[in-house]
Specification:
- This protein is of the alpha/beta class and about 240 residues long.
- Helix content is about 30%, strand content about 25%.
- The chain contains seven helices and twelve strands.
- The strands form three sheets. A five-stranded mixed beta sheet has the order 1-2-10-11-12, with no helix packed on it.
- β11, α6 and β12 form a beta-alpha-beta unit.
- The longest helix is centred in the first third of the chain and has 15 residues.
- The radius of gyration is 18 Å and the shape is globular.
Length: about 240
């Protein structure tokens, strides 16, 4: 009704869009992005380098937005779009893309029918000025009547132990990591065109409670990582899949 009043036209679908209402006692958050289901889901898993220098610079609000880095990022997106069979989702690691680049890429990909899950670099929360470590989730939809997308920034719930210590060292104080309110500090199940998935950022995967609550509710779990402890995470991924 609001859209019809503002634009003089309604939307193409009356399906629910966005975060669904739920009580504080709900173990999971539910997010819906309607669309026509696909029989086969194609996922492009990328390998994007984030150096220690880029990690530290982003934490200090001095992001590396060099032309060389942008050309590499944009070239990767363009190569994927040139594939004869485009993926439905592109997944990028934790802390791998500046937020403004990820937002632009999400819009470009949505116009080509591709969704994006990307770990974006540290950014400052507008209200608290604390550091956010977010997973950007961009989901394609024709809900308004044309090719579009809806974007969610899902924050990391808890910093990893090493991450907390490193941020304390370079920022000269503790408690600078943004954590969402308690009622939002739980996994989200994204229902997208009949495909149900969730995303956890790095050490959030190590919380057995998250994995327990998601069991039986999702078709896939995306874990966005920037971590050298491949032995631990390899075992976690294997046990979670089982």
């Amino acid at each position: 009704m609001a859209i019809k009043m503002l634009r003089g036209a309604g939307v193409a679908s009356y399906a629910t869009l966005g975060l669904q209402d739920g009580g504080d006692d709900d173990k999971l958050l539910q997010f819906n992005a309607p669309g026509k289901p696909r029989k086969v889901i194609r996922i492009a898993v990328t390998s994007v380098e984030t150096t220690d220098e880029q990690f530290e610079s982003a934490a200090l609000n001095m992001h590396d937005r060099s032309i060389e880095r942008y050309m590499a990022f944009n070239g990767l997106i363009n190569r994927i779009l040139r594939e004869s069979k485009k993926p439905d989702y592109i997944v990028m690691p934790e802390l791998s893309v500046p937020l403004r680049w990820a937002l632009r890429a999400a819009r470009k990909l949505a116009l080509n029918g591709v969704s994006l899950l990307a770990g974006v670099e540290y950014s400052r929360d507008r209200a608290t000025r604390k550091l956010r470590n977010d997973c950007l989730v961009s989901l394609t939809t024709h809900w308004p009547g044309y090719a579009s997308n809806i974007v969610v920034l899902q924050p990391k719930f808890e910093p990893a132990h090493g991450e907390r210590q490193f941020l304390k060292k370079i920022l000269k104080r503790d408690g600078m990591f943004f954590q969402p309110p308690e009622k939002f500090r739980k996994p989200t199940v994204y229902g997208h065109r009949g495909f149900h998935f969730s995303a956890l950022v790095c050490s959030d995967l190590t919380n057995i409670q998250h994995r327990h609550e998601l069991r039986g509710h999702i078709d896939a779990l995306f874990a966005l990582e920037w971590n050298r402890d491949t032995n631990t995470f390899s075992s976690l991924v294997e046990s979670t899949a089982n």
